Amino acid sequence: MSWLSNRDREVSSEDSNVLRDQRVEKLQSIREDGVEPYPYTFNRTREIADILEEFDGDLEEETKNHEKLAGRMVGFRDMGKACFLDLKDGSGELQGYTNVDLLGEDDYELLQALDIGDFIGVTGPIFVTNRGELSVKVKGFQLLSKSLMPLPEKWHGLKDVEKRYRQRYLDLLVNDEVKETFVARSKLISSFRRQLDDEGFLEVETPLMQPAAGGATAEPFVTHHNALEQDLYLRIAPELYLKRLVIGGMERVYELGKNFRNEGVSTEHNPEFTTVEIYQAYADYEDAMNLTERLIARGTEDAVGTSKLDVNGETLDLRPPWDRTSIVESVEKATGTSDLSETSAAELKSFAEEEGLDLPEEGDLSWGETVEFLFEEYVEDDLFQPTFITDFPTDVSPLAKTKRDGDRQLTERFEVFVGGLEVGNAFTELNDPLEQRERFSGQEDGETKDEDFLAALEYGMPPTAGIGIGLDRLLMAITGSDSIREVILFPAMRRKDE
Looking at domain 6-151, which of 1.10.10.10, 3.60.150.10, 2.40.50.140, 1.20.1640.10 is its CATH number? Predict the structure, then answer.
């Protein structure tokens, strides 16, 4: 037989082109000897995790039944006439043992010629080695997919951050904790859907391409529809469409999906991100707080097994009830000031300048914008335990009803913080169509005025609570991730110069 030996494992991992050439040559040799390196299927009997769970510490003799297991070969130890290999599938890793007598000379020679990274299927009984390690005794095997590129070095893993994001498949292969993060992400999303469905909410879909960019203050992505002969905007938020559904009689709706914002990229921002937006008729922001607590606490428990977490050495306790404090009270406490509601925007600006803070340069800040700026500077980063910050200023909350106590300077709006990150935003929704039109008109650079939404609102919308939760940031908080790119499988990256 003309197969090459396993010696290509000794070639420096830096020279991957040499290894690839060797593996391509080996692939051709395997085919010439009548072995199909890319068969169509393999009927495995179980996943490796099932084997580990069933026989862990409870196997005295070799099983009578032969299992058919499949996965990627991630380790190989050649002992001449016998060898050990490590087989890894999507559920776990198991050692395999075989020798020339079990396989026969031809198959044993083929196995020795395979490379780390190749997919194989093995057949044989489960047993425990003399050293006490649960293993499969390989009495037969089949090559399932020949790998042409070497895996990153096993013990050092894949450390280059940019390469990890650009080649997420390698990141998942060599960093088990990365895979755990994305399994948790899927479980979190499933839990949110299940909880909302159980509470009588209906999942709906609204347009991703919209004629007006509304529902949030953000720079949209613009595209052009040739047949309609008009520009459209990728959705920055589904809010105004979901409210149309409430107006139309769908009293409990939610949408879980992507939004897009043509803005900066940072550790907390990605141009496309995942949210769940929820609208409940005949409810207010107090009801929204209660629902948010339930969703996040249960969702976290379903995702990672507990709602009381160890995050970077600190205990994060998501069990309700959570702290609730107004934005004005939080700023007063953090800055040592008082009577913030009676302080003018100019006075607040002077205070910020005296404190050496760099105020935004885009025009004069309103009273509400300055309060929000001080909150972000003095309070936000310290909100590690889950906290509702309530009663945001009206001039930064164009879609929220003003406080029912008559203070028109503030609204019934909250933001929810977990692990120092803002993960949600909610209102008692403004349902007065005349006031909503006036709020939109009073904003020069804020919320886009959507005439179709304003027309719908004139048909009447019942009292409604609306919630938006950013699932990427929530996952960052509960996993202790430093960057949003750690929780998005394929984050936005600057195009690599070829």
Answer: 2.40.50.140
